[in-house]
Amino acid sequence: MLQPATLQLLRFHFSFFLLPVYLFALAQVPDINTADAVLIFFILHFLVYPSSNGYNSYMDRDEGSIGGIEKPMAPTRQLFQVSIAMDIAALFLSFLVSSIFLICVLAYILASRAYSYRGIRLKKYPWLGYFTVVFFQGAVTFFMVYHGSSQQKTIEVPVLPIISASLLMGSFYPLTQIYQHKADLKDGVKTISYLMGYRGTFVFTAVVYGLAMGSLAFYFNKTGHFGNFFLLATLLFPVLVYFIYWAIQVWKDTSKADFKHTMRMNVLASCCSNAAFLTLLILSHFE
Questions:
Q1: Which residues have C-beta within 8 Å of that of residue 1, sequence separation ≥ 6?
Q2: d(CA 118, CA 136)
Q3: What is d(CA 91, CA 235) in angstroms, rounded to the nearest whole number?
Q4: How far is CA 24 from CA 43, 82, 143, 149, 228, in A?
Q5: Nearest 10 degrees: CA dihedral of 192, 197, 202, 204?
């Protein structure tokens, strides 16, 4: 029987925040292997991501708010054991997709552990921790979803959307850290958001998000689907509006860089991004 703390700290709901990269990659695959695409969805969102969350919570033992949970319970040994079991299950199922997909999932798991493990703790290094997250949750995830979901298991994955996925992930990731400066510092962790400060985090996010949208515009124009970019930009517009509103609030009062506003930003960005990329997926295969 899974303990309440284990279920809470696996944070299955957090997978929703990472779903846009999966949908974006799938929308670019010309000939989808539906069975493998469904299996990949399960592996990532019900095994790999929750396991990563659980292991991170086991190592951090957070006392304050964490992603999607305002009052986390204390982790137990069971959480560690369940996360290991989920990793093993993910690797076994990944072998059913392809050996390359298996290698990607293994690399993702190892990077996630290196990010959190007290003996390595990549997360305590601002830039190294940042690029680790961006590379694996953006580039590697896009690559393995595209590869694994294609009929031919191709490794010829378009580079521009890989870059775009990484930039999109890299633009909003610092915002998820903005309310945890004190807690992270107490734990010996200096995040990129802490390094840049409250205002600097918003400026950095705006710059990287601009680069992400620019790369998407270039990609869709190059592939003759520039209308898709306008659709994407339209569906993501509410995110931009709230981002500007929140930035103004924080500019006036840094106490607004709190858990409540961060979660609003996360939920809105995830809902809009998922809607946008799901729409592109539908259009790309039913037009």
A1: none
A2: 20
A3: 35
A4: 17, 30, 11, 12, 12
A5: -50
Residue 32, φ and ψ in degrees, nearest 5: -85, 135
Does pTM surpass 0.90? yes
Domains of the chain, CATH where assigned: 4-286 (1.10.600)
Average pLDDT over residues 68-84: 87
Compute the distance between CA of residue 195 and CA of residue 211 in angstroms, rounded to an integer: 21
**Own/partner pairs for 82-87, CB < 8 Å, 24+ apart?**
82/2, 82/6, 82/10, 82/51, 82/54, 83/10, 83/51, 83/52, 83/54, 83/55, 83/58, 84/51, 86/47, 86/48, 86/50, 86/51, 86/54, 87/47, 87/48, 87/51
User: Any idea what DSSP says for residue 70?
Assistant: S
Closest CA to 97 of 137, 135, 41, 53: 41
Q: What is the DSSP letter of 75?
A: P
Q: At 121, is the secondary structure helix, strand, or coil?
A: coil
pLDDT digits (tens, 9 = 90+) for 90-108: 999 999 999 999 999 999 9
pLDDT band at 67 (very low <50, low <70, confident <90, very high): low
DSSP state, residue 177: G
